[in-house]
Amino acid sequence: MDEQEAQELYTELKELLEARRMRDLRERLSEMNEFDVAEFLTELEPQPMAMVFRILPKEQAAEVFANLDVDAQEHIINTVSDRELGEIIEELYVDDAVDMLEELPANVVKRVMRTATSETRDLINQFLQYPENSAGSIMTAEFVDLKKYMNVRESFARIRRIGADKETIYTCFVTSADRHLEGVVTVKDLLLAKDEDILEDIMDTNVIHATTTDDQEEVSTLFSDYDLLAVPVVDREGRLVGIVTVDDVIDVMEQEATEDIEKMAGITPSDKPYARTGAIEIWKNRVPWLLFLMIGATFTCIIINNFESALATQAVLIGYIPMLMGTGGNSGSQASVAVIRNLSIGELEFKDIFSVLWKELRVALLCGVTLASANFVKLLLVDRLLLHNLEVTIPVAATICVTIIFIVFVAKAIGCTLPMIAEKLGFDPAVMANPLITTILDTLSLLIYFLVARLMLGI
Amino acid sequence: MDEQEAQELYTELKELLEARRMRDLRERLSEMNEFDVAEFLTELEPQPMAMVFRILPKEQAAEVFANLDVDAQEHIINTVSDRELGEIIEELYVDDAVDMLEELPANVVKRVMRTATSETRDLINQFLQYPENSAGSIMTAEFVDLKKYMNVRESFARIRRIGADKETIYTCFVTSADRHLEGVVTVKDLLLAKDEDILEDIMDTNVIHATTTDDQEEVSTLFSDYDLLAVPVVDREGRLVGIVTVDDVIDVMEQEATEDIEKMAGITPSDKPYARTGAIEIWKNRVPWLLFLMIGATFTCIIINNFESALATQAVLIGYIPMLMGTGGNSGSQASVAVIRNLSIGELEFKDIFSVLWKELRVALLCGVTLASANFVKLLLVDRLLLHNLEVTIPVAATICVTIIFIVFVAKAIGCTLPMIAEKLGFDPAVMANPLITTILDTLSLLIYFLVARLMLGI
Which residues of chain B have pLDDT under 70? Predict the structure, then answer.
């Protein structure tokens, strides 16, 4: 459904709503996908939204609810009766319920927990205790468990009986009496086997699994490496406590990529989408790096002050400081960002550091020579001839261009090695490397500039 | 399997290989996951790698092959006989075959195409024609198609008969006699229905689908919005030509995030992993932005030259140029990166531009005041008292701090609006916005600095 189709559909639905043709509206909504119903609800004002939500068929309501953003969820919770709320909570998958509870205000959480059955409450409480961004925090408890002595016909009978409420039925988990994970069997295996085959003979005992405390990024690597639909999560004693399904992992991957991008831009990552983050919170996420870099710039200030009297004799050099520092920063960030991303998706490891450095030095040679040549021509043609800046002599132009080559070399070398060293030392390369690299490169770029100028121009 | 376990396993396997115990090696490998076997093969030298590959059981070989990188694939193709090669190609899913062929040298491609059956060859040729990064280029032709007059028992019989070679059996596609897509039915629906139910009654006719020319990013949005395992791809006439499965989309998402990150760092994105990209190609991907920014810095140079004589009277101001330009650049890139990422994952749209701007202006006020206050204290305590720079008077410090506040305001405002305007105009916000924003902000930061200094210090 594209944007225009969606708008036409929403208009039609809104007309039904305004005409109070609730039965027709309910009929139309029940044919729609849960995600699209949720999108339609968020287009409405809070009051009609809650009203429309309450006419949804019961089996659709919980899934629509899970697709709403937390503000809409909160509004609905505050509108419905305890009994209705209880029904929604029971229908929600426990991971969706936990996601929601982590963001709701405390008084609303209390009411939700009060209306849930004690079994659901215990489960939710258990899930709330797993560390943020761990496998435990993204898993769900609704899976199909089978026993190894079952045959294929019995397995299908069980899947048919309990499958309707499970997040996935396609991967089934074979557990022992004390809930230890013994194997997995897929519905494809079952369909291709004979009715009388025993699970023990057809299940895969070499189970790819995660533990509750594993980082969610590791879990998502399992999915992309092994092309799985679900990964079982076991506790420290090896007991199966939940599963992570591929749709949850897609959300995790999106979130992790956003976090990497934010870190590289000097923003403390937050789970909240931008649209729902307040100005004060954004300020808290951004100002530390700005402060760090501002204070870090003290070094550049000291260097410039030290060369102040020398610069007075060749004031033309001052104008090129921003260009040279910019070139250093950009060259370095190209290298560091490429390395950080490849570390993060597992394409590079610390042991590759020398081959990476060797490659970056060759790239630096190519980039440095290109930039220096282009700049030499530009300095003499544009700055000297066109803009009549007669201080731009050939020795001055040569000084600037030699500086560029050195700066690009240093920038690429530091940009590629520092993130790898940070990772080796156990720091997050994205967080650690960028502010440090910028500060180091700014300082070094200036030092290189003035040293080259001293040697070539005798300032 | 963690790094250490993997190393132990590889050592054990290598010992079997060196002892020429090929039967034991084959036995061990056949128990392993295809991804792990491929990882083991890439640890070996080319010759033993090809040897080990050839002892793999036939049904495992094709999937291991699909998991190898293209260099290893090429080596194996050059080692095996035409008959063996033909068998591998027939076993590969067509999307994996196409991925490989797009990267192999022309002479190897020729040999692969020659050994394939004419049916496979036609299919591959058809797939190779879809534009890069389109739904057509990532889809596969191996899916389960059913007819609407079939009942559940007949459907299961067909799934059992043809399912073994299909990339997924869990989503089945109901097509008409002329291959038009009429509905989808999942194995879950089938399992929960009665044997005699007719597909027409249980299938979902409201099918979420893509067309062959859709961008792969739109396809991945369908998966994350609707929690799907497979999306059907239809041609312009509405005929079903292939499906995209969730495991392919996970790769697409990783690739798209990498591209966004590269674009923001001024790197032309490439599909090739860093480790397999040569220095010259990396240079080609990086140097255009460096050149653009270097030439863009002409503006800063002109501004500094224009204020040169004024600066001579207050030379202390020169030392703070890098800090102020850095603060502007960093403030701006925080805003632009946040907006670009949220545009790319569909959390923001052009119509949000005013609410985003309003939020960023409040963030700018908070950040600007924080930075200015911290800097005022730092200037007087560190630069004046500690470093004995007596030129840092209170009016000078005030000038610098007022400048910071203005710069942060301008940087946040431009940083958040320019990507949204770029998107509205049909440009890629990640590519268009960053180089432009940097150049604009560097120029404006300097202008603001000198104008504030002229007003406050009378230079």
Answer: 1-2, 432-433
Q: Facing residues of B146 across strands?
A: B174
On whether both B156 and B110 belong to a single domain, the answer is no
Asked whether this complex has an ipTM greater than 0.95, the answer is no
Q: Say yes or no: A243 and A309 in one domain.
A: no
Query: How is A393-454 classified by DSSP, letter by letter?
Result: -HHHHHHHHHHHHHHHHHHHHHHHHHHHHHHHTTS-HHHHHHHHHHHHHHHHHHHHHHHHHH
Residue A279, in any domain of the structure: no
Mean pLDDT of A124-132: 82
Q: What is the pLDDT of residues A372-415, one digit of tens each?
A: 999 999 999 999 998 888 889 999 999 999 999 999 999 999 99
Claim to verify: residue A191 and residue A110 sit in the same structural domain: no
CA-CA distances (angstroms) from residue A451 to A365, A442, B298? 20, 14, 23
Closest to A191 in 3D by CA, of A152, A151, A230: A152
Check CB contact under 8 Å for A337 and B265. yes
- Which of A83, A103, A129 is the last residue in one of the domains? A129
Q: Does the residue A190 lie in any domain?
A: yes
Within a domain: residue B433?
yes
Range of the domain at B406: 297-457
Where residue A28 sits, what CATH number does that domain have?
Answer: 1.25.60.10
CA atoms of A341 and B259, how far apart (whole Å): 10
H helical segments located in A163-297: 187-192, 199-202, 216-226, 246-264, 279-296
> How many domains does one find in chain A?
3
- Both B152 and B247 in a single domain? yes
CA distance A243 to A225: 17
Q: Which two tokens stand for residue A184?
A: 């997995």
**B228: CATH:** 3.10.580.10
pLDDT value of residue A433:
64
Q: Do A83 and A172 belong together in one domain?
A: no
Number of A to B CB contacts under 8 A, please give it.
Answer: 320
Question: For residue A325, what is the nearest residue in chain B, using CA coordinates?
Answer: B322
Indicate whether B105 belongs to any domain: yes
Distance (Å, whole) CA B93 – CA A215: 32
Instruction: Give the H or E element holding residue A204.
Output: none
Spatial CA neighbour of A57 closest among A78, A26, A17, A82: A26
B360 contacts A278 by C-beta, under 8 angstroms: no
CATH number at residue B410: 1.10.357.20
Residues B322 and B198 in one domain: no
Q: Does A211 touch chain B if contact means CB atoms closer than 8 Å?
A: no
pTM of the predicted model as reported, rounded to 2 decimal places: 0.76
Instruction: Check whether residue B314 and residue B446 sit in a common domain.
Output: yes
Q: Which of A318, A343, A403 to mutate to test the interface with B (most CBs of B within 10 A)?
A: A318
Answer yes or no: do A309 and A431 share one domain.
Answer: yes
> Of B213, B238, B71, which Cα lies nearest the Cα of B132?
B213
What mean pLDDT comes out for the span A193-219? Answer: 92
- Asked if residue B161 lies in contact with residue A139, where contact means CB atoms within 8 angstroms, the answer is no
Q: Name the residue with higher pLDDT: A392 or A275.
A: A392
* Mean per-residue pLDDT, A340-346: 84
Are A282 and B389 in contact (CB < 8 Å)?
no
The partner residue sitting opposite A371, judged by closest CB among B159, B291, B320, is B291
Handedness of CA B153, B157, B160, B166 (dihedral sign): negative
Beta strands in A287-395 (DSSP E): none
Average pLDDT, chain B: 88
